[in-house]
Amino acid sequence: MIRKFRFGKPFDTEAVVEHIEAENGIEKFDNRYGEISITDAGDSAFCYRYTMSDNDAVYGLGEANRGINKRGYIYVSNCSDDPIHTEDKLSLYGAHNFIIVDGNDKFALFFDYPSEMTFDIGFNKQDLLFVGCNKYDLDLYLITAESILDIVKEFRTIIGQSYLAPKFAFGYGQSRWGYKNAEDFREVVSKHRANNIPLDMVYMDIDYMDSYKDFTIDSKRIPDFTAFVNEMKNEKIHLIPIIDAGVKVQPGYDVYEEGKANDYFCKREDGTDFEAAVWPGLTCLPDVLNPEARAWFGEKYSSLIDAGIDGFWNDMNEPAIFYTPEGVEDFKQFYDESIKDLKEIPSFELVGRTVGLANNKNDYDSFYHSINGERVCHKDVHNLYGYNMTRAASEAFGKIAPDKDILLFSRSSYIGMHRYGGIWTGDNNSWWSHILLNLKMLPSLNMCGFLYIGADLGGFGCNTSRDLLLRWLALGVFTPLMRNHSADGTRRQEVYQFEHIEDFRAVINVRYRLIPYLYECYKNAVINNDMMFKPLAFVYTEDRIARTVEDQLLLSDELMIAPVYTQNAIGRYVYLSEEMMFIKFMPDGSINKQILDAGHHFIEVALNEVPLFIRKNQKISIVKPARCVDEIDISTAEFIGYC
Ligand code: GLC
Predict the structure, then answer these.
(1) How far is the CA of 426 from the centre of ligand 1 (A)?
(2) Which of 60, 118, 554, 559 could cross-link with 534 by S-S, CB 3.0 to 4.6 Å?
(3) Which ligand 1 atom lies nearest to the CA of residue 244?
(4) Cα–ligand 1 centroid distance for 487 (angstroms)
(5) Which fold has domain 2-159?
């Protein structure tokens, strides 16, 4: 059952697509599910409080830090471009305000609120679940059902069916910030092909553009783009360019000129175009919350689609701001007034001021959208920007190429964006802990409707190592987006950079053997508003141990995954709530099978093996590996199962 409670005058985020009659929140909210207070006094104008009992677990929040069970920490929905995902970080790139309380009471809440919102889940007071924000304009959805899985299904039904990615998007993708020209891309393809490593996609990071200008190609680097896209197509490779949110301020650049002439950019208070520096230098932000500007920006993707492109990744759309001219002016003033004449500098303040130029709250507070004739301050709708940039592209694809299946994913998101594209989880690092974080985010994202998801395998920042990459790929075998991506300046991490390439081939081949099965699972999850990845707690609801397992997941109805995520490990411990068949994909292509009883086990897994568990009375199909999705031969399918 779903009830919708209205407080104040909410902004229509369009996260929910089903019409539900709103009840007066103050009068009608059922106190059994928490207490709500509202005040006009600044901070925390809206407060929700629920007293958790000892064994209550709290799930949800999509792309958020820490555990699958969110209890014990504090999280802030505030889409942020922060590339250092340490445990203390409160905000990442997405804002997914959906939580489930699983205990004596079972219920879920969706706080449909597009600005900053705090979820303190037993952090300041261990039994208090607190949710607050500083305006009381929101819709709060309360969902109750027999089981947690039913609750998720009900929620997913009201937010609408998730984006369905094309099948080729389940292939392996190679990416790196730093590939600069056609030769670099050709080398990536030929080295994969020559080494017999399957590959379907090569990602084009910002260097393909002319001076980082959206929808341009640097013709010195790629002289005939359409011919190049075709050449890659003949190699069965999809080129996937990046599109950034900011449009370079440059007189004569058509996208800039059109946006400016039509008032399609976000404005300062005085009505001039707001400017913020990102990769190209100063940029203007397309006002994607304004339907007309959104349609205009989306239409811009057509030039690349006309050249044969069938996939995009939308980036820097929190929106990320390196600095603004106003911020620089403040900094100069601080310098003139506080530092210029000093012999010793106040170093902490100086560092703070410098770092604080980026993604500064004052900047987000100082620009405006024009939405259906109304001026709306960005800070009140901040978390909707990436969502609407991706919506712009997706809505335009329906017009530009209605018959084409286009891959689309975004860095920033809000619930609702799941209907338009997938996400990748941004700039992680080559840290072992980030393999586990990748795993933990999968079910949380699924709860919120995001099904085409994945992390930068091998880690984006820092230098990867051979063993870390192999272990991470062995998890990536199961994630819808399987992409190796890394930052400019870090150690090269294409699989052919490392010794014993056959080990990498063995792991990536397993992905291709599973693609028909995995794509089916994914598609079914999309169609049925289901989760592809479930915490053990959602299925083995009566098993106290299973409820606390955070490093294993159920995949669809048939499988359990349990990747190795520690350095120098020869395997790992797993917990089985029921008897299962433990299988290992071996480097020679054979499959080891062993029945394991319910309980704790240590399983040995070498770096070139992929572990998997099949549940009792279940089977899955596997095929022969292929060099790309298009060449998978379904007639080679065989079943492995356990009846
Ligand atoms: C951002 C993206 C990253 C990309 C880089 C350069 O940091 O998250 O994936 O490589 O920008 O475009």
Answers:
(1) 8
(2) 554
(3) 12
(4) 7
(5) Immunoglobulin-like (2.60.40)
